[in-house]
## 1
Amino acid sequence: MIQYNKIIFTGPVGAGKTTAITSLSDVPPVKTDQVASDMTKSRKASTTVALDYGMMTLPGGEKIHLYGTPGQERFDFMWDILATGGIGLVLLLDNTRADPFQDLRFFLNKFGSFIEATSLVIGVTQMDVRATPLVSDYHRQLEATGLNPPIFEVDARRKKDVSLLVQALLYSIDPGLEDQ
């Protein structure tokens, strides 16, 4: 059984990390958003500078702690801090970005050791705005890495979508969870 249920949400600016945690959390989320003062402001008015935190409770009463990383690389010192003690990674990718595959490679590289020691699930957001690349294209990008994580099209505003990501992650960590 899982000892400490800490899941990390990461991805580029605007991928939906804060929104995903907000949609899933059973408690008011803690956010460290500040007014965007760099090129981020062309994508959104504020950005996470330290972390987002939320918590969800499973039907059996077990708590899942949700930590969101800042998306900007200049805050990458927080990534290792937040990942410490985590059981898995939810990587959110924004399909409308100029090169979402570059984002995929970047975050797989930055969180490589964490992914090797835990588990990974990928959610692709904004597919309603830009339909390509397809989920199958993301799978093809991953073929050379030896990774085969679950990949889903998600709307970070929809609790059902984000819940599916967390369920897939938990199941990949402990397949026996489905039987409970």
## 2
Amino acid sequence: MKTTTLAMMMTLALTTTAVAANNWKDASKDAWIDGKAETTLLLNGNLNSFDINTDVKNGTVTLTGKVESAVDKALAEELIENLDGVTRVDNKLTVAASDQHTKDSDNSSLKDAKIATVVKTRLLFESEVSGTSIDVDAKHGVVTLKGEVASDAEKDLAVAIAKNTDDVDKVIDKLQVAQ
């Protein structure tokens, strides 16, 4: 009887420890994703990250708060959904201003700003690319990369990251390899 009771108590303790470890692992991953999301929004020059809140549960990022336009709302969602570990984005951002006065040219420049921001963010999060040394400009879907990189491989990776970004039609490579 003592052995059975001891075995049951040990099994219960190990099961509880395994469940607690799993919950801790999931919470850590969500906290890591939340930190990346907050950093991504903070680094974006087109969004006021202090008006956007992020909450992460099981890889789903919920965005709440206010933005100036529907383009800003879409930009925030796209930036976050492209982060590693994010399974879904629940965009509950509200638009503070009316978009009716926005013209097509304004939409084009905002789209270009979004493209440049997404490319720059991806370069910054890629450990094999010195994203801080690369300038990213976008105009009408054409991305221009300028700056200095350490190797041809780094240059090729930076160009590939830009080419594989949504809404990029063409990449102009003006990157220089350091001698």
